[in-house]
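Quarterly update from the structural biology core.
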Amino acid sequence: MRSALYVPGNRPELFAKALAGQADVVLIDLEDAVPMRDKETARGEAASWLRSVPAHRGRIWVRVNAGDLGDDDLAAVAPCGPAAVCLAKTESAQRVRAAAAILGRYEPDAQTVRLCPLLETAAAIYAAREIAMAPRVLRLQIGEADLCADTGISPGDDERELLTARSQVVLAAAAAGIAAPLAPVRTDFRDLEALRVSTLALQRIGFRGRACVHPTQVPVVNEVFTPTRADLDRARALVTGFDAAASGVMVDDTGRMVDSAVIRRARRLLER
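Predicted structure, tokenized:
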């Protein structure tokens, strides 16, 4: 999954339009995008729409609220079978286990709904590995607007102030053996070149997808996270040559040494 497009849960007229677009995942948002007065209505709209599109549920995620409100969200959407639920403001593995227990009571089939905890505070970043190892966790997502508000971080144009937190989330996911994390949204949806530069930087440090807040961002994110034909051809050539080599090390056509670590990266690219 390269791209996830957030859609406000109180805007049901946008659900089908988003599903028909280029985003790999449509992420119905019951949290920040929905004012408190509309929470219950949005929850009902999300559940109703999920029931109406059974063939597409593999592409639909739902972001639920924190606390008791989030528990009600989980109970409402679990029977409808979304592919995953994003847990807003997750700070501990205990929160993930509690959410998994609610899903277990309401989902139609055993453990089919996965979880994507949103790490939005300093406490969450420090607990990232334990959260990543909790039940049902598919991947992590970092929420940087709340993280910056919590920590006082004020990112510059190159966002290097966030590198430590981002890297820690990538390492936590790798250590837990789950999918690489979903990169944070970029709220300035008009500057697509800045989005490209930012997304490329996130890809280089290990993110393998990004959340979007506007449909215009999706093609850029998809392009960055889609391997080029040249990348794939080179990976295939490396794997083929290495498998045929008589030793655990070979030299590629550029004169660079290739060992098993390089081949693991190539195989992972081909698998993705």
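The radius of gyration is 20 Å.
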